[in-house]
Design brief:
Number of helices: 4
Number of strands: 16
Helix content: 10-25%
Oligomer: single chain
Largest sheet: 14 strands, mixed
Length: about 260
């Protein structure tokens, strides 16, 4: 498994669920403008201070397949801690803050301490703390108000395709009734990169409307990584601790 358990801690920061009935979709309105669709997306308020999630995760890349459990703790806008476990034993932890990304893994007694460029390279798109948190909460990864988009309807979804000359194409698919993200795609054709994030279903909770699972597919040239996440339980606004301490004997690694 080598470094992959540690890197998996980065990948799984993506989704959450709750315990009420799934939401039915209605017909999307083709009379809206892209600006109005974006405004409606941000009317979905997330009213909480902390999240505590337990999940099952399956991970596959060209060299391995892993099935693990993951515990995710989040203090909104401040800190995210992910603990990866196999057979109930913690094998890796990742700590995400607005300033940096850190992880350690026990198998190789190694740790990483760096900035968001490494995480961005892994997923093939520029990331920061807010974008990682958005992934976890099922929000659009980017601030849609800062971009320009062409709007069309596709399969009863609002499709917002970015208008940009940056070499990066971004497309967001929002549900027809509640304007929440169903799918988002980020591609860099010149580098043969594509990241696809799918939220197959949503469940409602008093605090907020959250995904019940997520599917991620990251393609870089001929290599593909897929992650599927299912959540067993979630709770809001508990008093959480975020313990993270790297043993002195661990060796620091540097990832290009």
């Amino acid at each position: 498994m080598k470094k992959y358990i540690g890197l998996l801690s980065f990948y799984i920061l993506v989704s959450c669920s709750a315990k009420k009935a799934a939401i039915a979709e209605t017909v999307a309105n083709d009379k809206l403008t892209s600006d109005k669709i974006i405004d409606n997306h941000y009317k979905n308020k997330l009213n909480f201070n902390t999240l505590y999630i337990k999940s099952n995760v399956s991970y596959r890349d060209p060299s391995q397949t892993q099935n693990v459990t993951a515990e995710i703790k989040l203090k909104k806008d401040e800190i995210i801690l992910v603990s990866i476990r196999i057979l109930g034993i913690t094998v890796a932890k990742a700590l995400i803050t607005p300033e940096k990304v850190q992880y350690y893994e026990k198998l190789n007694s190694s740790y990483f301490d760096g900035n968001y460029s490494t995480l961005s390279n892994l997923l093939g798109t520029e990331l920061d703390f807010q974008k990682v948190q958005n992934l976890l909460l099922g929000e659009a990864i980017d601030n849609l108000r800062n971009g320009k988009y062409n709007f069309t309807l596709e399969d009863n979804k609002y499709k917002l395709a970015s208008v940009s000359n940056s070499g990066i194409s971004k497309t967001f698919y929002l549900s027809g009734d509640n304007y929440l993200v169903k799918k988002e795609e980020i591609s860099q054709p010149g580098l043969e990169r594509m990241l696809q994030i799918i939220y197959p279903a949503r469940k409602s909770a008093e605090e907020c409307n959250l995904p019940s699972g997520i599917s991620i597919e990251a393609n870089q040239k001929l290599e593909k990584t897929t992650i599927n996440i299912n959540y067993n339980s979630i709770s809001f606004n508990e008093e959480l601790s975020f313990p993270y301490s790297v043993p002195n004997s661990y060796e620091r690694v540097f990832i290009n």
